[in-house]
Recover the amino acids of this structure.
């Protein structure tokens, strides 16, 4: 594939040229001594970081909630964030017209809850093999390569950075960079992920894990693809109450409190099953430390596998529940 | 004589008003019997059933849930039941991951198939009853 090799500092100067225009923005990461976090830059890049080794939230969340149309934005985010962005574009939650999405290769991240120094250099490159430090979601990530969105920033085996275009908007992004296009190496530092076995769990273990849930619904609020404004769990209309709660208690003999947490999590698991990117923002937001990613990622991979679909891979793939093939799923009927 | 100590399950069914619900009415007018534990809910099309309804029914006390609609290709709204098939097949996969696949079924029953409706429902009821009383 044709791409541009990025010289030292060329990317920052390209983005600064872009920002010199009126109403042009760059969304990326800012670093300080102890942390790295999302930032929207307007006039120039200060303390800019290309990669963020700390995961607190998924950047696509801000695009659907906070930004109106109008400004030109370049996103310089992780592959999981760009994948959520692609899914939200398909769900018509984001207007993609003025946005150039650039996915940057990711070496994995640590949780924003962990204490201590943020990993850098060699420690960062081997992060995903270090199960102690890396987040579970990153150690089992499906796509760490910057191969999604309009363009990608890839790192080759020698540690050089490459910019690769995937769409016309990606070409426009590349034209900001100085230098000539040349053939990019096929072998990059980060390869494709290995497939994981199908998710299978006992209901007892599910109950045990979720017994800690306090129904704060932070997981729903911080999920980038759980976008419904009128969620069925707003208020308590959907949860058993009054007669329905008595009915539940008398039938089952007992009920866990807060009631309806299995209901909440299973329904959410189904609703995001085709769009979940497995970023682990839900687990990051959970105050109780429930291993949510294990469930949501496992279920979504299994359900996406049924339709050979992968969330956020391409804007042209239709979300499976919104389409059908006449001759399929012959064994669905009992 | 029926065993009175046996636990009787409750089954919730979502039935398309144009076919399966008509079939259940026809079964009634033909004096066919199906278990009284089966509660049929009329929906305008089987694709109206959000899988959330099924999960809610199961976690609020139903022992089994079935979703029933027209045969593929016969939908009153042209293609509703194709969407149902995808959604319910995916929901079954979700239930399979949690080891409770046997609690959900999907039937295709047309308006004239009263006998088929009774057979399918009775078979499902008996399977659930057997499991409920075994453990």
């Amino acid at each position: 594939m044709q791409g541009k090799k990025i010289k030292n500092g060329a990317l920052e100067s390209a983005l600064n040229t872009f920002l010199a225009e009126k109403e042009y923005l760059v969304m990326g990461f800012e670093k300080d001594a102890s942390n790295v976090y999302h930032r929207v830059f307007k006039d120039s890049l200060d303390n800019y970081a290309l990669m963020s080794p700390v995961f607190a939230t998924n950047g696509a969340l801000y695009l659907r909630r906070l930004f109106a149309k109008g400004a030109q934005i370049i996103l310089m985010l992780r592959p999981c964030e760009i994948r959520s962005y692609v899914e939200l574009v398909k769900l018509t939650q984001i207007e993609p017209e003025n946005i150039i999405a650039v996915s940057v290769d990711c070496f994995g991240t640590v949780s924003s809850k962990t204490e201590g120094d943020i990993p850098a250099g060699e420690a960062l490159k081997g992060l995903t093999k270090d199960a102690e430090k890396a987040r579970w979601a990153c150690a089992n990530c499906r796509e760490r390569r910057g191969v999604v969105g309009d363009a990608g920033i890839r790192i080759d085996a020698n540690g050089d950075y490459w910019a690769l275009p995937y769409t016309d908007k990606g070409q426009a992004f590349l034209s900001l960079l100085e230098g000539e296009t040349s053939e990019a190496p096929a072998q990059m530092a980060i390869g494709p992920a290995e497939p994981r076995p199908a998710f299978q769990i006992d209901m007892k273990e599910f109950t045990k894990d979720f017994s800690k849930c306090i129904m704060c619904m932070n997981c729903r609020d911080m999920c980038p693809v759980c976008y419904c404004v009128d969620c069925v769990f707003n208020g308590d209309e959907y949860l058993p109450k009054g007669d329905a709660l008595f009915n539940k208690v008398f039938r089952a003999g007992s009920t866990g409190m807060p009631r309806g947490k299995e209901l909440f999590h299973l329904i959410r698991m189904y609703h995001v099953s085709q769009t979940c990117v497995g970023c682990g923002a839900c687990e990051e937001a959970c105050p109780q430390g429930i291993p949510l990613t294990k469930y949501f990622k496992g279920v979504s991979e299994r359900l996406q596998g049924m339709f050979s679909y992968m969330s956020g891979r391409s804007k042209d793939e239709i979300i499976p529940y919104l389409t059908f093939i006449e001759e399929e799923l012959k064994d669905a009927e009992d | 004589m029926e065993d009175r100590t046996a636990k009787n399950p409750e089954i919730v069914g979502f039935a398309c008003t144009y076919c399966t619900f008509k079939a259940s009415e026809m079964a009634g007018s033909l004096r066919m019997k199906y278990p009284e534990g089966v509660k049929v809910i009329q929906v305008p099309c089987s694709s109206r059933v959000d899988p959330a309804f099924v999960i809610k029914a199961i976690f609020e006390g139903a022992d089994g849930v079935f979703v029933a609609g027209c045969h593929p290709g016969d939908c009153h709204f042209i293609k509703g039941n194709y969407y149902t098939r995808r959604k319910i097949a995916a929901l079954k996969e979700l239930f399979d991951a949690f080891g409770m696949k046997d609690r959900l079924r999907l039937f295709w029953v047309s308006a004239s198939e009263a006998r088929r409706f009774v057979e399918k429902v009775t078979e499902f009821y008996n399977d659930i009853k057997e499991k409920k009383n075994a453990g």
In short: Chain B touches chain A at residues 51-52, 55-56, 59-61, 72-73, 79, 82-83, 85-94, 97-100, 105-108, 120, 124 (CB under 8 Å). The two ends of chain B are 22 Å apart (CA to CA). The helical segments of chain B are 20-29, 51-59, 80-97, 114-134. Residues 114-134 of chain B form the longest helix (21 residues).
